[in-house]
Amino acid sequence: MNDKQKKDYFEYLINSYDDGTATIKGDHPKEVQIAVDSFFKAGKILVDHPEIGTIPTEYVDKLLSSLAQYPQYHKLVLDLVTILQTGEDG
């Protein structure tokens, strides 16, 4: 997938979440649900205002710290940290 396709897909996912056609599935701790919801809302701001350039670090920090508290999300946290370190899905 090239950069344009990735950007378009990101925008599609964020807009789908925002309009309610995509939702968080499964049974997750409330704190995780709130952090994921906040992260997606920050993503929507980025989609609507691309001049911002990136999602504010506070949203990423909250997402990672919320997920890291629960063993079932440790692999996801490691994957997300790899993406942050390398700039891509490892």
Would you spell out the secondary-structure blueprint of this structure?
Blueprint: H1 3-18, H2 30-48, H3 57-68, H4 74-86
Helix pairs in contact: 1-2, 2-3
Can you tell me about this structure?
With 90 residues, this protein is mainly α. Helices cover 67% and strands 0% of the residues. The model has no long low-confidence stretch (mean pLDDT 89).
Number of helices: 4
What is the straight-line distance between the termini?
14 Å
SSE-based structural type: mainly alpha
Tell how many strands the DSSP assignment holds.
0
Overall shape: it is globular
Q: Radius of gyration, Cα only, in angstroms?
A: 13 Å
Estimate percent helicity.
55-70%
pLDDT averaged residue by residue: 89
Quote the beta fraction.
under 5%
**Unreliable parts:** none
Order of helices and strands: HHHH
Main beta-sheet annotation: none
Essential attributes:
single chain, 90 residues, mainly alpha, 4 helices, 67% helix, globular
What's a quick, concise take on this entry?
This protein has four helices and no strands.
